[in-house]
Amino acid sequence: MASTSSFAPPKLADFILTERLGSGTYATVYKAYRKGDSREVVAVKVVAKKSLNKASTENLLTEIEILKTMRHPHIVQLKDFQWDAENIYLILEWCSGGDLSRFIRSRRILPERVSKRFLQQIACALLFLHERNISHLDLKPQNILLSGSVLKLADFGFAQYMSPWDEQSVLRGSPLYMAPEMVCRRQYDSRVDLWSLPPGARVSKDCRDLLLRLLERNPDARITFAEFFTHPFVDLEHMPSAESLVKAKELVLQAVQKDQEGERSAALSFYCSALEHFVPAIHYETDRQRKDALRQKVSQYVSRAEELKALVASDNRLSFEEARTSRDILREMSRDQPRLLAALQMASTAIAKEESGMDDHEVLDLYQQCLGELLLALAAEPQGRRRELLHGEMQETQRDVSLDRESLTDSVRSLSLTATVGTLLGRRTEQQAGHRAGHRAFT
């Protein structure tokens, strides 16, 4: 079937082997082309029979057994395997991007968002293996290949079928990436794969939490597979995949329906959930035109979500204001202003005295003191919701006076309140444009 020499790659009936990609103790990997019209590019792992001992033969048979039935977007596919008198050949899916180790070295530091996307893909493959009681046992950047922006687990030479309760003591994998319990030749189980996941630097709180739990030396205290797959940094639910767009469309249809029914809060919630799937859908899409069309749609949904957010905030504000008087709201917003709180209390006292029929002059004096304090507070108050309420409180205080209305009006005029307020508002006319955006965000 094939022949080989020490200087040339082996020859196979259906493939042309070209450049050597790498080699290890038992195998050498070549880039190859399928003969015929298709010219399909593959990788061929050539294992010399004479280099195999009993243990390595069992490992190779297990690798073939595992890979021949496995089909997963983040695991390198075994297309075929052949053998002759000298070698065993594994015909594998071609990954043009090389391995993750080379990718990391070429960029030195990966942004956390890229690391997260890569980790999601590795986690997706590990979940697939874990559900089938398979442990890779040699996870490292050199055994993770890139095909475009897609990661694929490769080299299952040390992989084993291991149930969660199975334990091993045989040394497997690469020393630099071995879990402590394996290096110390203690009993170990499938959790060694969690230790081997690559770390990062300058990371977020969630990422740091995950790394520390993955790199726990005590396997009993280390994060479990179930906890790993549901960790907020891994976030498999929002991993870019073929399902991302399907989920996004389902959610946005519900958002539109709720929007049409006038249920703004529910519509906003569905729009936000849909956008959490639209973003990974854009990452997953490879066709430029479809990607651009998706971006335009997402932009429209974002705009509508922002509109709904403002409307919901307005609805909430109106409900809040209907339930409480302006003075109550102003008092709540003025907890950090002792003098303003005292003035509001003075106004409440004046109203109470007025309602109880106290001496007009005493009530008038309280109102004058209150208005003087409110005027000072208004002069120092920046543009915003509290300033509006403060201005309204001053006007409301004047309207609420029921004792000797003409005398109180004369007293207020003597303070030139109206002119002063007008002057204060005039001074801030130039600031209103800058403050108006802040006012809208506040309210």
From TrEMBL:
- In this chain, ATP is annotated as bound at 50
Looking at its record, which EC class is this enzyme? transferase
Q: Where, subcellularly, is it found?
A: Cytoplasm
Q: Give any single GO term for biological process.
A: autophagy of mitochondrion
UniProt GO molecular function: ATP binding; protein serine/threonine kinase activity
* Stored SMART domains: MIT, S_TKc
The signal peptide here is none
Pfam families xref list: MIT, Pkinase
Reaction catalysed?
A: L-seryl-[protein] + ATP = O-phospho-L-seryl-[protein] + ADP + H(+); L-threonyl-[protein] + ATP = O-phospho-L-threonyl-[protein] + ADP + H(+)
Reported EC number(s) for this entry are 2.7.11.1
Cellular component terms, GO, for this chain's entry?
autophagosome; cytosol; phagophore assembly site membrane
* Coiled coil location: none
Protein origin, superkingdom: Eukaryota
Keyword vocabulary terms for this entry: ATP-binding, Autophagy, Cytoplasm, Kinase, Nucleotide-binding, Repeat, Serine/threonine-protein kinase, Transferase
Domain named Protein kinase is located at 15-234
Record family assignment: Belongs to the protein kinase superfamily.
Protein's recorded name:
Serine/threonine-protein kinase ULK3
The scientific name of the source species is Collichthys lucidus
- Tell me the classification of the organism that encodes this protein: Eukaryota, Metazoa, Chordata, Craniata, Vertebrata
